[in-house]
Amino acid sequence: MNAHKSAFVFSEAFLSYKFRDDHPFNQKRVVLTYDLLKASGALDDEQIIPPRMATDEEIKLIHKSNYIEAVQKASVGLLSSEQGMQYGIGTQDTPIFENMHEASAQLVGGTLTAVDAVMSGDYTHAVNIGGGLHHGFKGKASGFCIYNDAAIAIKYLREHYNLKVLYVDTDAHHGDGVQWAFYDDPNVCTFSIHETGRYLFPGTGNVNERGHNEGFGYSFNLPIDAFTEDDSFLEVYSKSLEEVTEYFRPDIIISQNGADAHAYDPLTHLCCSMKIFEEIPKLVHRLAHKYCNGKWVALGGGGYDIWRVVPRAWAQLWNIANLDGQTLQGPLPKEWLEKWQPKSPVQLPTHWQDLSRVYKEIPRKKEITEKNQLTLGKALEIIRNEQKYIL
Fold first, then answer.
1. How far apart are CA 270 and CA 226, in angstroms?
2. Which InterPro entries match (predicted)?
3. pLDDT band at residue 269, thresholds of 50, 70 and 90?
4. Angle value at C-alpha 49, between 159 and 28, nearest 5 degrees
5. What digits encode the pLDDT tens for the residues 208-219?
6. Closest to 102 (Cα-Cα) out of 147, 57, 132
7. How far apart are CA 251 and CA 162, in angstroms?
8. Beta strands 48-49; 252-256: pairing state
């Protein structure tokens, strides 16, 4: 155990956030991750904190009262399909399910539990892989997300602790709900690296989305090209995030760690390997210690290859938080493979890292890398101009 204590927020109640059996958003990935960590001996019982239920007042920090009431009605079958459509619920992406309000409030409560664990001083880092639902809007569900736990947690930090919050979103989909919630707030800096919206939901996240009014200069987007591979992703991510953090100098970092940029993911077009899911949190961990006395809350997010990708990615996220920036190497535990392989529709990986190329060679690699470097150049120019303005 390192000197910086870490908390892991977990409950099997997270499984109750379930749209239907064939829906791509499947919280079984949280249990798979938990089991992998336990089988690896990487998670002790005393590090596990059960999530609390978020109150309606806490959810109202971001969401409108009439929207929360609509979700509550939908939870007990009292919302018509016409009413639901006004609020983005009952759609193909976000279908209605029984007790959806309670299940959603539990995920929000998990993230607030993580925030309070860090702010109490008892823990330096806290991880809630059940959270990270970054597409939810103030009055509307979107993209599998009913309540936006990340945005609620940021508002909670602003109101209760008056901290400057850096939000780092590395999901393949743009972190739109969080960005728009704080688009005019100079005390919240949002950073999102994602596949360009040209081909992918939600279609936003351009470099020129920079904030509004007092928040201008505190929104940063790095849209990368479809079929981007590890090295290009990490070049854009690391160079831009280093400068954004130096510019903003946050008091705490909240990261959304979607695991859908992997080549195996069925919903995106990026071609990364497990390598990025080790390097992404390593940098956030280092920056949190450099600028925030270590204060870091890490969330889950997207990730739709729940068998081969998400458990390894999120387990390494925890390992980095818990082992002072270190990851596990070598074979996965035999116990975990024997338990889950009979249930898996695909062959499970045998090692923490991808041992061989997980996709066919990309013929446009040079062109894609150059396009991403142009995007990075534009972003760095914006960041450096903001630096001069502040100074």
1. 5
2. AcuC, HDACs, His_deacetylse_dom, His_deacetylse_dom_sf, Ureohydrolase_dom_sf
3. very high
4. 105
5. 999 999 999 999
6. 147
7. 9
8. unpaired
Q: Which of 135, 174, 194, 262 is catalytic?
A: 135
Pair of tokens at residue 212:
């509004």
- Inter-residue contact 189 to 201 (CB < 8 Å): no
Sign for the pseudo-dihedral over CA of 355, 361, 366, 367: negative
Peptide bond into 202 cis (omega under 30): yes
Q: pLDDT value at position 147?
A: 98
How do 165-169 and 252-256 pair as beta strands?
parallel
The whole-number average pLDDT for the span 232-244 is 98
Burial track 19-50 (b if 16+ CB lie within 10 A, e otherwise): beeeebbbbbbbbbbbbbbbbbebbeeebebe
| Contact criterion met (CB below 8 Å) for 265 and 304 | yes
Closest CA to 200 of 219, 164, 225: 225
Catalytic annotation present for 285: no
What whole-number percentage of the chain has pLDDT above 70? Answer: 98
| Cα 227 from Cα 271, distance rounded (Å) | 5
The mean pLDDT value of the chain amounts to: 96
Tokens of 269: 């077009």
Q: What is the mean pLDDT of residues 139-164?
A: 98
User: How far is CA 129 from its chain centroid?
Assistant: 8
pLDDT digits (tens, 9 = 90+) for 1-60: 445 799 999 999 999 999 999 999 999 999 999 999 999 999 999 999 999 999 999 999
Where b means 16+ CB within 10 Å and e means fewer, 154-171 reads bbbbbeeeebbbbbbbbb
Structure tokens at 319: 């390992």
Q: Are 133 and 71 in contact (CB under 8 A)?
A: no
* CB distance 318 to 8 below 8 Å: yes
* Residues constituting the chain: 391
